[in-house]
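step=encode ok
step=design start
structure_in=
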């Protein structure tokens, strides 16, 4: 990896953190910062050097994410980075043709383009059985029709990996196939959705109204969109998000500490408050080590990653408890609204979303 953690920290604490308040208030995604991230090698940190990437390892990506989030306090931009690389760029590198790799990856890793993935749909989320977006054969290609919701970076994406139904398999299950779609294609439209958090990472609703897909748009083989692309991509995404959160937690704790010292002149906690502070801060080290092992498996051995689902469930539930604790601490100590703690506490709503998804898996695994 060409860039050091010290350089990442410097970039995040200056360029990212110093503009965070304004960007968050304006709900703005910064193309300028995005291109600077590309120039530093962050957007292609694990991509092979032959395609313009940095050739870094999974562990280097995990530690870079954590430091970027800790120093920049911008979970939204971090999520955009994860989505771009884990769901779009690495999928093209893993399953794309030589032509697709040569055409798209260099533009994505430099920050010229933003990549995203369009999977989730109304009423069904990312569940393959409920997907309604279809790609119907038309001539030598396909015609894409349907709607996608809550797509990270959807309103600003230049290239999308779109999951669509292309028929049924021999067992009568929906056949899902992944396609590459440039956002400039006629019939495609994206509108921003207000999440009330993650303001620097735009989420959108997408409609595909008879979008024409050429014969070279298919990513991987027909019918393997879920079994090959989706499973591997979301293993990467979820593990990388888990790796980034200890950085945000660390930054939130530091911001709370500084705020308390500014108000009271000391950080001399007593009794239960002191016990809880020590407990939750020491847990961060465990979170860091566990999340790094998940990232390594997700990027290097997705099948083994699936055997670690218990660890992911544990971290998701533990993170939810951690975020509740820091919010209760801020309220109990009467810290009041203060930058950047207020932004980080707002963005921690993502923890609750993740906890809900993982809890469903846990219920199926351990109870139902």
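sequence_out=
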């Amino acid at each position: 990896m060409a860039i050091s953690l010290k350089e990442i920290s410097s970039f995040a604490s200056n360029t990212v953190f110093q503009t965070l308040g304004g960007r968050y208030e304006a709900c703005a995604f910064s193309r300028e910062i995005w291109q600077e991230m590309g120039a530093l090698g962050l957007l292609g940190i694990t991509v092979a050097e032959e395609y313009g990437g940095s050739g870094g390892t999974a562990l280097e990506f995990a530690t870079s994410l954590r430091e970027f989030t800790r120093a920049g306090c911008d979970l939204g931009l971090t999520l955009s980075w994860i989505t771009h690389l884990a769901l779009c760029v690495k999928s093209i590198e893993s399953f794309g043709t030589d032509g697709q790799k040569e055409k798209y990856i260099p533009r994505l890793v430099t920050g010229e383009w933003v990549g995203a993935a369009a999977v989730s749909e109304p009423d069904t989320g990312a569940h393959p059985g409920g997907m309604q977006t279809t790609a119907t054969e038309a001539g030598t290609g396909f015609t894409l029709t349907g709607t996608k919701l809550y797509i990270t970076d959807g309103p600003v994406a230049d290239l999308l990996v779109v999951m669509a139904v292309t028929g049924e398999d021999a067992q009568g299950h929906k056949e899902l196939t992944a396609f590459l779609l440039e956002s400039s294609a006629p019939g495609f439209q994206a509108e921003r959705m207000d999440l009330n958090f993650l303001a620097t990472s735009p989420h959108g609703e997408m409609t595909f109204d008879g979008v024409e897909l050429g014969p070279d748009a298919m990513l991987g083989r027909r019918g393997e969109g879920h079994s090959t692309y989706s499973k591997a991509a979301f293993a990467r995404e979820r593990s990388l998000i888990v790796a980034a959160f200890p950085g945000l937690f660390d930054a939130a704790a530091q911001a709370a500490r500084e705020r308390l010292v500014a108000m009271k002149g000391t950080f001399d906690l007593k009794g239960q408050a002191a016990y809880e502070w020590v407990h939750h801060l020491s847990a961060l080290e465990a979170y860091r080590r566990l999340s790094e092992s998940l990232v390594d498996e997700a990027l290097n051995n997705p099948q083994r990653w699936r055997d670690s689902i218990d660890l992911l469930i544990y971290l998701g539930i533990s993170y939810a408890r951690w975020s509740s604790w820091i919010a209760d601490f801020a309220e109990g100590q009467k810290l009041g609204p203060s930058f950047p703690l207020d932004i980080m506490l707002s963005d921690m709503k993502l923890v609750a979303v993740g906890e809900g998804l993982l809890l469903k898996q846990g219920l199926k695994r351990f109870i139902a």
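step=design ok
step=annotate ok -> The longest strand covers residues 141-152.
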